[in-house]
Amino acid sequence: MKDARIILSMVREVCPNGVFPGRNGEQVAEWPPDPFHVLISTVLSQRTKDANTYAASAALFRFFNSPKEISRAPLSRIKELIRPAGFPEAKARAIKEIGRRVHEEMGDVVPDDMEALLTFPMVGRKTANCVRAYAFHIPSICVDTHVHRISNRIGLVSTKDPEGTEAGLSGIVPEDLWIDVNSLLVRFGQTICLPRNPRCGSCPVSMHCDFFSRLHSPPPSAKNLRKGPRRDPKA
Ligand code: SF4
């Protein structure tokens, strides 16, 4: 079995500054990493790039900064502010409803348990785990597209969907590293293990990576061809 601690420590060597939604390592966020802000930024981060998440979060929180304010903000104004993050209609509706529920039903307190988080619109396991990890510091593995792709390429898991990857990783990654998995692998996936054309030549993990091994091991038929036909020693 592969040693996830060793692999993650190698990733940390090349990507020391982890990232999470709304905080991309290069820009200093103007808003606090509390549960409400992390939740809203993570919803905004869906299917967009870090820079867009940052721009949309900064614009929104500059004008509407609490569950109450967001719940009372005009939908059209939220849409306008978060437009850089894409899907403004769906995201604005979700954000406004999250603000309303947190303010009116939860006394302005975002819950930390998975079941309750999953009741919010546009919140699936990935977003819920991000909130639990980055806002509440509860050991959680947030599996986004980078974590899913890289974990399968390396061979830490062999899964078809992010839920399977989360379950697989939770069995092999030591719990004290669960929170780091996402922030390390996201940055690693943006800089080295790219979705297309991964930079395997400059990857410190290559010696542990199944994808790399497959690339560099000739197919069995080629091996046989290279050996050539067996010679009759008496000939
Ligand atoms: S060797 Fe290539 S595929 Fe494997 S982790 Fe590194 S960059 Fe990704």
Please give a handful of descriptors for the protein shown.
elongated; Endonuclease III, domain 1; mainly alpha; binds iron/sulfur cluster; 56% helix; 13 helices
The CATH homologous superfamily of the largest domain corresponds to: Hypothetical protein, domain 2
Distance between the termini: 48 Å
Identify the CATH class of the largest domain.
Mainly Alpha
Shape: elongated
Structural class: mainly alpha
Ligand roster: iron/sulfur cluster
Strand content is under 5%
Determine the CATH topology of the largest domain.
Endonuclease III, domain 1
Give Rg in angstroms.
Answer: 22 Å
Strand tally: 0
Main beta-sheet strand count, sense and barrel state:
none
The CATH architecture of the largest domain: Orthogonal Bundle
Kindly report the average pLDDT value. 90
In terms of per-residue confidence, which ranges show pLDDT below 50 for 5 or more consecutive residues?
Answer: 228-235
**Helix-strand pattern:** HHHHHHHHHHHHH
Domain count: the total is 2
Q: Helix count, per DSSP?
A: 13
Task: Give the fraction of residues assigned to helices.
Answer: 55-70%
